[in-house]
Amino acid sequence: MISRSCFVIPRIFNSLPYNNHMVESRTPRRIACLQPSATVILSMVGELNRVVACTKYCAEVVPELRSELRKQGRANARVGERYGDRLVVADSWSTKASEILAAEPELVIAAVPYREAALAEILKAGVRFLGLAPRTLDDIYTDIATIAALVGASERGAKVIGEMQAAIEQVRRRTASLPRKRVFCEEWGKPIIASQAWVAELLDAAGGDFMGKPGAQCSAEEIAQQNPEVIIAAWCGAGDRVPLEKIISRPGWSETSAAKNAQVYCISDELLNTPAPTLIAGLRALAAAIHPKIFDPEIFDRGSGLRSITPSITQGSVTRVPGENVGA
What we know:
Layout: E1 31-33, H1 36-44, E2 51-54, H2 63-71, E3 82-83, E4 86-88, H3 97-102, E5 107-111, H4 116-124, E6 128-132, H5 137-150, H6 154-175, E7 181-189, E8 192-194, H7 197-205, E9 208-210, H8 220-226, E10 230-233, H9 244-247, H10 257-260, E11 264-267, H11 269-272, H12 279-290, E12 306-308, H13 311-315
Parallel strand pairs: 1-2, 1-5, 2-4, 5-6, 7-9, 7-10, 10-11
Antiparallel strand pairs: 3-4, 7-8, 11-12
Helix pairs in contact: 5-6, 6-12, 7-12
């Protein structure tokens, strides 16, 4: 697995008018989205009807697509199948020109992570291409504004950005007076890779201090020595299926404060690794993981994408409330 910080390319798109508004007759009516983030953004600005192709992962973050699958009596979709009228294609890591062209798009939107061969296939298709490579929340806001402008929905894009910023500040205000905790958050487990910079920003708002360098590879021993108080795993492509019991079996991890206090969590991949408005759900999950007594404890029971390690796994037969301090 190669981190999202690799193969980053600059954005490529036709220049917009000076006021960032696209004349409706020139807006692309058929769009292929090769990462869920683009599909989410188009859905949030009310332009999902323009999406003629998207990935199988998009149903995990776009309710309308989940509904299409349920209507068809399926739990997931494969490349070459359809969500209603939308063709399912591979993502920007493994796409093929033939798949893209089958959807007859006027615009292809892709985002990190890229693979050189897949990028060549995208360019080979000969369709207008917008390549996104966000690192920070500001980059994500820019991407939302760019996509919204391309489909003539600048005002709705601005509203979505404003709502994201307001939600982040609301959580920041709630955590401002709380004790901060050392948090290690990883996006991959073998090798261990720390989460991206936008996750570090969200974690700061949620009341945690991000350990390590965002997007960088690190060793298990290095993290154990820093004694994280909270450990969060959001592995790319793993959903909420990260094996937490294996994570704390790494050298020295069972002795960390996070393991002793049962503050070892999995947050669904799509909530932290999709650079789109869905990050707000990830933010709330982060806040609940760091301060489980303060933030709504029912978040664990709402299909929120947050899962805690079973206390008995880390503490033998001793039962403790997750987050109870036993010598951090």
